[in-house]
Amino acid sequence: MKFSCPREPFLDALQTAASVAAARSPKPILQKVKLEVGPDQAFLLATDLELAIRVRLDQVDVNTPGEAMLPPAQLGQILREARDEQFVLESTEQGTVLRLTNAEFQLLGEDPEEFPPVPDFQGQSCYVIEAEAYREMVRRTVFAADTENVRQALSGVLWELEQGERLVAVATDGRRLATKTAPVHSRLAVASGGPEATAPESGTGPSIAWPADVIVPSGFLQRTERIVSGQGEVEFYVEDNHVRLRHGSVSIHARLLEGRFPKWREVVPNPSQPELRKTELVAGPLLSAMRQASALLGPDDRGVLWQFDQGELIISGQGTELGQGQVRLPVAWEGEKLVVRLNPKYVQDFLRVLSPEASFTACLQSSEAPVLFVTEDGSNYVVMPMAL
Known about the structure:
The protein is α+β, with helices and mostly antiparallel strands. The chain has three domains: 2-114, DNA Polymerase III, subunit A, domain 2 (DNA Polymerase III, Chain A, domain 2, Roll); 126-264, Roll (DNA Polymerase III, Chain A, domain 2); 269-383, Roll (DNA Polymerase III, Chain A, domain 2), CATH 3.10.150. 16% of the residues lie in helices and 39% in strands. It is built from six helices and 27 strands. It has helices at residues 7-18, 72-81, 131-139, 218-227, 283-293, 344-352; strands spanning 2-6, 33-37, 42-47, 51-57, 61-64, 66-70, 86-92, 95-99, 104-107, 126-130, 156-162, 166-172, 176-183, 185-187, 202-203, 214-217, 233-239, 242-247, 250-255, 277-282, 304-308, 312-319, 323-330, 338-342, 359-364, 371-375, 379-383. The strands form four sheets. Strands 6-2-3-4-19-18-17-10-14-15 form a ten-stranded antiparallel beta sheet.
């Protein structure tokens, strides 16, 4: 194997691939990044056996195809300190040689044949979502997933496809639940063509198989949110109990989580119910008020009180050791007073994923009923109240 490549694009690709490589593993080869060089293109591959990633290298000049195992941290350190615009990698009997204008390094590594296979994004039918919509869908839901791993299904995010036109993401830890809906469309694969071939036309019908209970791991979503940068499209499909996603030069896949997800639609109140009382709130001022009201709470103090009464919302927190405080916000509220106690962390988690100027509707029924927050862009958030 011998090829040359621009230094800075390679560094970016190496960092992306290394984010999936296992930090610690009984198998040292999983801590490395595999380089695959074909006749006219090259890829960097990494996996921790839960996630796997393949990053395409552009602008490569291939002399001899082949494979090599690379130490990402050490190689990255060398290339960051270099000033060359190009570098050369070449396989030898002793390992891999890195050549720069005034430097040469011998990289020892494992046999590439022992590295687990990392499949490419297959040239088949898939669904497509805009990159910005994908990032927002992940941000609005993944924070509500269970981090204690009591039930595996709750540690991920449920993806449901509605009529082949909308993707609904749902996350819950049993005490709060977040949903976000985003538009998608289908893309049918070209029958004859390489792995990159897809049909130029896109449709919106449910023409692609979609299994039930697609529960995507939170770690996959958090990594892909960082990888899916800028504009463009995100392609994804589910097959063989795996979710596979591609954006630009990066494709990444993960095994779906097993288990049964709760019947979440039974938990989300219907905003059109006549017994629900509604008011508009703004994320930025409310988040600031929540931070102030909860500042004097200790780890054993129970939540903050929301009191809606004649044109204002009074948010108060009472700490057993540090004191108490309250913040008043003007709101459009008429009629009988309503008081509910909420976990400040759960409310702030939701407010932090909204822009400060974003407005949403708070729907409340009583001190004991779930509180529903509804945004204008297809996001719902349900919080179970704490006992008064």
